[in-house]
Structure formats: structure tokens, C-alpha cells
């Protein structure tokens, strides 16, 4: 009871703990870099301290390169991710609702799903006439399979009794899909969308490191080749912020579109 009252008295306690954990990690990073800590397996001899990373971040913020790199990465992510949302949800509903579609589509998808996105890069370069399209394709593949699988899971786990009741009351297939199947599958779909966004960023950065000329992944790899080690961490942090922000937007949109999933606040 005392712990519950403490949380009630201090509504910002959770944010304080989260901020404290971040500052604790930064302090450990500063200490390890300053001491050039060598643990045998892991060494911090060449890892720049946080103050150098902050200086490099300020330089990047003042540079026009930032918008060029971020704009290129955002365009590739949302182009590939948007296509994956359309195809992933459509395929997921078809597989989850139709046995014939499941027999037709699921075997090749399950065969292709374990192939890492990195393995697709050489083939995508051969297939598409431009490196831009190949990177969008890699991003598309990264998001496609999580969206499909979570959509199939959500559709397949809708209570069949609700569907049977709606049919007995004269519900049309379109109405059943709109009023029962879609709301029932929505939580799983949103989960797949959030996972797909994360994998999109992972695949995009990998593709940009190999075949990009602009983008955050290219910026990070270029910093490594030029031995600008602080810029490597800046690029990593930008990727993390962009990925976290896009995932937050998706989950926030999901909560807005699914008010029935919001927790009930009791006093």
C-alpha cells in the first residue's frame, strides 16, 4: 500500500527513474572512455567520450548534410514501409480468412521469411535499375513479414462465435469484416506495424551502408571509413531517435484508433 501511495503522490516518479537510467548509462560510458577501459573481450580504447559525441552532434545540426541524410532515410523508410503495410495487411487478411489463400500464399512466404534482408541486397541491385529502388525494396521486405504474420494471427484468433452470431443475424460478409474481424484483429495488426517499423529501419541502414550515397546509414558508414569515431555514435543515436519516434507515432495512433483497448483508470 505504501508503494502505491508513493506512486500516487509522485506521478512523475517513473519518468525520473527512466531519466536516471539514461544518465547512469552515459556516466558509465564517460568513465569507460576516459579510463580507456580494456576488459579483454571488450575495449573502450577507441570509443569517444560523450562530450566529443555532443560536439560532433552540434556540428551535424549546423550542417545542411543533416536534412539531406535524414530526408533520404525517411523517404526510403516510409515508401518501403507504406507498401509493406498495404500488401502485408491484405495478404494477412486473405491468409487468415481463406483456406485457399493460405494454401496458395503461405508456403512461399514461409520459405522467403527466414532469408535475412542483407542477403537480398545483391539480388535487389540486379533487379532494380537504381540503388534507390533497391534500398526501398529492402525496407519493404523488412517490414512485410512481421505485418503479415501478426495480421494472420489477429484474424485467425477472432472469436468464431461472434462471426457465427453476426451471420445468423443477417450480417453481410463486408459488415462482418468491418465490424467484427477488423476490430478483433486490430491489436495484433498494430503490434505487427510497430515491429515492422523497427525492422524497416534495421534493413534500411544496412542497405544504405552498402549501396547508398545519402542517408543516416551511409553517414554512419562513411564516418567509420574516415575514422571519425564520434560521428559513428552520432549516426547511431540519430537512427535510434528516428526509429523510436516513428514507433511511438504508430503506437499512439493505434491507441487513438482502438479506444476499447485503453486501460480503465480507477480511483
From TrEMBL:
Pfam family, one: BPD_transp_1
Membrane topology: Multi-pass membrane protein
Gene3D superfamilies per the UniProt record, alphabetical: MetI-like (1.10.3720.10)
Keywords from the UniProt entry: Cell membrane, Membrane, Transmembrane, Transmembrane helix, Transport
SUPFAM superfamilies: MetI-like
Ranges for domain ABC transmembrane type-1: 70-250
Cellular localisation: Cell membrane
Gene Ontology CC annotation, any one: plasma membrane
Residues that span the membrane, as ranges: 12-32, 74-95, 135-158, 201-221, 233-257
GO biological process, one term: alkanesulfonate transmembrane transport
CDD domains recorded: TM_PBP2 (cd06261)
Predominant subcellular localization, coarse grouping: membrane
PANTHER family reported in the protein's UniProt record: ABC TRANSPORTER PERMEASE PROTEIN MJ0413-RELATED (PTHR30151:SF0), ALKANE SULFONATE ABC TRANSPORTER-RELATED, MEMBRANE SUBUNIT (PTHR30151)
Reported function: Probably part of an ABC transporter complex. Probably responsible for the translocation of the substrate across the membrane.
Family: Belongs to the binding-protein-dependent transport system permease family.
Name of the protein in question: ABC transporter permease
